[in-house]
Design goal:
The structure holds 2 protein chains of 2 kinds.
Chain A lengths: L3 E4 L2 E5 L4 E7 L3 E9 L5 E6 L3 E5 L2 E6 L4 E6 L8 E9 L6 E2 L3 E6 L1
Parallel strand pairs in A: 2-11
Antiparallel strand pairs in A: 1-3, 3-8, 4-5, 4-9, 6-7, 7-8, 9-10, 9-11
Chain B lengths: L3 E4 L2 E4 L5 E7 L5 E7 L5 E9 L2 E4 L6 E3 L9 E3 L8 E8 L7 E2 L3 E5 L1
Parallel strand pairs in B: 2-11
Antiparallel strand pairs in B: 1-3, 3-8, 4-5, 4-9, 5-6, 7-8, 9-10, 9-11
């Protein structure tokens, strides 16, 4: 199956700092989504972004489908941004989603 | 709208027991998916359904069964519980493949 790799695996930030999370995938995809799993385990969809750039407040995401990667930008980080960020991809020709192993983010006051 | 509701939230099973994890959504979504998340890992797809009466295996289907008799409900059945099935189980729904997934809060299952 398709391989999904996320980097860095762990990240510690001071409140107010910016960060970039990366998702690489090994094959062409129909669909790519970014999720935030909060410290209570709840999964929240951040972006549906198979290609191009989207922004939502302090968060933005860019997917370059031809080069098989996506980036999630977090600006002016807050303690509530802490948690694990996952990307998930759907390969072309299938309905299955494959998740990366995530980036664990800790924002320190 | 309640969104995606999973029950129970927690459960402890003995090896060899069976149980059904319930998932219900009230958004009239066609697609419903079951995932498991092992500690420190991403989610892995167990089974999925693209509409009532249609189900398909995901990446890790062994030891599980599903049914989709209505649009709203997508139960996951464990027939003979094994310690390897200790995990957190998430159900997700979405209208079609070009829309974001909505997740339930998960069921934490321990098999001893």
């Amino acid at each position: 199956g398709i391989q999904v790799e996320q980097s860095p695996p762990d990240l510690i930030l001071q409140e107010g700092a910016n960060s970039t999370l990366r998702c690489n995938f090994s094959d062409s995809v129909n669909n790519l989504q970014w999720f935030h799993q909060n410290p209570w385990g709840q999964l929240i969809n951040l972006f549906y972004i198979p290609s191009g750039t989207k922004q939502n407040g302090r968060l933005s995401a860019t997917t370059v489908a031809t080069e098989r990667y996506s980036l999630l930008y977090i600006s002016s980080s807050q303690t509530t941004d802490s948690g694990v960020y996952f990307c998930a991809v759907e390969p072309i020709g299938g309905n299955q989603f494959y998740f990366g192993t995530g980036t664990s983010l800790t924002v320190i006051p | 709208n309640a969104g995606v509701t999973q029950t129970p939230k927690f459960r402890i099973l003995k090896i060899g027991q069976s149980m059904t994890l319930q998932c219900t959504q009230d958004m009239n979504h066609n697609y419903m998916y079951w995932y498991r998340q092992d500690p420190g890992m991403g989610l892995k797809l167990i089974y999925y359904s693209v509409g009532a009466g249609i189900t398909d295996k995901g990446e890790v289907p062994n030891g599980y069964n599903v049914s989709r008799s209505t649009t709203e409900d997508f139960p996951l059945r464990l027939e003979l519980a094994a310690p390897s099935q200790t995990s957190v189980y998430f159900c997700a729904s979405f209208p079609n493949s070009n829309q974001p997934q909505h997740f339930g809060d998960g069921t934490r299952l321990s098999i001893l």
